[in-house]
Design a protein that fits this description.
Blueprint: E1 11-14, E2 17-20, H1 27-33, E3 38-41, H2 54-60, E4 64-67, H3 77-89, E5 94-97, H4 102-115, H5 120-128, H6 141-148
Parallel strand pairs: 2-5, 3-4, 3-5
Antiparallel strand pairs: 1-2
Helix pairs in contact: 4-5
Length: about 150
């Protein structure tokens, strides 16, 4: 199957890891067709773009689910620790999403740098395909820049 580019803010990080923004019901069969075994959601469940009953919809497709609600204005170390535990405990391939792929790209930037030891330029290139909190005008961008150490 080709990459499901119709999924909002779709990005493939490696052979076993994909990311995106908010999922829609029609996106889930595409993830299943890719062989995704686990979905990690960093968005708040009450966001207007959040997919209702996401866990149940994924379970019906045989896909495991972890929900780590990260308030956009206040990411913290407990969120990162939960993300790391979910990612490292997941049977892959894994798909990680939020609403715009901003939380996810920031979390992976930290994971790539701090855990995997990825070179800064490579980690930054993956991050900035979605956004760069160090240069973005969003009111929470400075919080995110501090959170990822940029």
């Amino acid at each position: 199957m080709s990459e499901p580019d119709m999924i909002a803010a779709w990005q493939r990080l490696d052979a076993a890891t994909t990311t995106s923004g908010a999922l829609r019901p029609d996106d889930l069969p595409a993830l299943a067709a890719l062989g995704v075994c686990h979905v990690i959601n960093l968005a708040l469940a009450d966001h207007p773009q959040a997919l209702p009953d996401e866990a149940e919809r994924l379970a019906a497709l045989g896909i495991a689910y972890s929900h780590i609600p990260v308030p956009f204005e206040a990411p913290d170390e407990t969120h990162f620790a939960a993300f790391r535990a979910a990612l490292e405990g997941a049977r892959g391939p894994v798909h990680v999403h939020c609403i715009l792929n901003w939380r996810v790209s920031a979390f992976f930037y930290r994971y790539h740098r701090e855990v995997l030891g990825m070179a800064e330029d490579r980690a930054a290139a993956l991050l900035t395909r979605q956004w760069d909190p160090g240069t973005h005008a969003h009111p929470a961008a400075a919080t995110w820049a501090r959170f990822i150490g940029r």
